[in-house]
Design brief:
Length: 204
């Protein structure tokens, strides 16, 4: 089985306030940088075969301290990228939460698409395809994949056999570690939303 450490990027000034999507130039803030440094200790003793990341800065910067300590390269993979938000990119969440589309997203994400962007089903398919590709490249090894909240939750929901409409029940906080063991015909969730490295009590 391949051990996949799915790590959400650390805090940035948009976290919980605006929908960044694939917008470039969003970097970790002081809190996020501290979280990225703290994550290094969480991987002590883990023999990583590779470190992969979403191409977006906030994910790559979260992976950088671990890669630097290990003398490894952070390999960007578009398949690990954030959900493409289309016309919602950059919008304030306080405004989006008042829209009818937001209500649909919360109640039936399997039928929802961000205006001009990706659907949740497409993001799940993209993320799982990427992880399966990496598993084939690293059988019986451990890899770290730095990504974003919804893509990580959608992947975990797939491997747990949860309906897509239930994926919002999962919590993946900034700088949290999630661990999935993926085999040829089954998968196991070994760790969910471990935020101890980020300085928060873990919830799973």
């Amino acid at each position: 089985m391949t051990l996949i450490y799915l790590v959400r990027h650390g805090d940035n000034d948009w976290t919980g306030k605006r929908l960044p999507g694939w917008r470039k130039g969003i970097h970790l803030n002081a809190s996020g940088n501290a979280q990225a440094e703290a994550l290094v200790g969480a991987f002590e003793g883990v023999p990583l075969a590779a470190i992969y990341s979403s191409p977006l800065e906030r994910a790559r910067e979260t992976a950088a301290p671990l890669a630097r300590l290990r003398g490894m390269r952070v390999v960007p993979r578009p398949g690990l990228g954030e959900m493409r938000a289309g016309r919602w990119e950059g919008q304030h969440l306080s405004r989006l939460r008042r829209t009818k589309q937001w209500i649909l997203i919360q109640r039936a994400p399997s039928r929802a698409r961000l205006p001009g962007g990706e659907s949740f089903a497409e993001v799940q398919q993209r993320m799982v395809h990427e992880l399966e590709t990496l598993c084939a490249r690293h059988p019986k090894a451990a890899i770290a994949c730095f990504s974003h909240a919804d893509p990580i939750k959608l992947a975990i929901a797939f491997y747990l056999g949860l309906p897509l409409d239930s994926f919002q029940r999962l919590t993946v906080l900034p700088a949290s570690i999630n661990l999935v063991a993926v085999g040829a015909d089954h998968a196991r969730l070994l760790l969910l939303n471990d935020t101890r490295a980020a300085g928060r009590p873990t919830s799973g």
